[in-house]
Specification:
Blueprint: H1 5-33, H2 42-78, H3 84-88, H4 100-105, H5 111-123, H6 127-142, H7 150-180
């Protein structure tokens, strides 16, 4: 089996980095959820806190790498062919070389995939690494203080859940867009 460069980067972006971020959420969520003074001994906190800090920092880096590879490596291929010919051609007669974006726009049943789903991926998905970085920074900064600051811990969990939800929607949209108009 041979992969083109575009297929390789699509896999790295979505099935590699994107999936890794979504999987890391479970560990981060469990770590923050169970970070309560009544549940942990001092030894438990000393053992868990470095792992939680490192895991959240790595998770934030993975989120940044996911949106960066999507924005500056994969996305330009999606929009490839945005020439005057593609934009002037009647939608039903778009030449094959106009690319994935034009494939979606050519069919009224899939045009919304570009108009809504791709816009989500282009813009809203950037919130994911911002939230992930905020959570990681807060956990690194507050450390053991989170044991007594249940209010802050709960807010961090909500930011983490929001980050996961936005990433999951972006991943779903990416898979459905790729199914309908693969970047080849």
């Amino acid at each position: 089996m041979n992969l083109s460069s575009r297929e390789f980067w699509g896999i790295v972006h979505g099935m590699g980095l994107g999936a890794l971020y979504l999987l890391a959420f479970a560990g981060a969520f469990a770590g923050l959820w169970s970070l309560r003074s009544r549940l942990l001994t001092n030894e438990g906190v000393n053992e868990r806190m470095p792992r939680l800090k490192a895991g959240l920092a790595i998770m934030a880096v993975v989120a940044w790498l996911t949106v960066i590879t999507g924005t500056w490596i994969v996305y330009p291929w999606y929009r490839a062919g945005a020439t005057d010919v593609c934009e002037r051609t009647a939608v039903a007669d778009v030449p094959e070389e106009c690319g994935a974006k034009w494939d979606l726009l050519a069919d009224s049943n899939t045009a919304e995939w570009h108009d809504f789903a791709m816009e989500w991926k282009e813009h809203v998905a950037w919130i994911v690494p911002l939230f992930a970085t905020a959570v990681a920074a807060a956990v690194i900064y507050l450390g053991r203080d989170l044991l007594t600051r249940g209010d802050v811990r709960r807010q961090l969990i909500w930011f983490l859940v929001a980050s996961f939800g936005l990433a999951a929607i972006a991943g779903l949209f990416g898979a459905l867009i790729t199914k309908n108009a693969p970047v080849v």
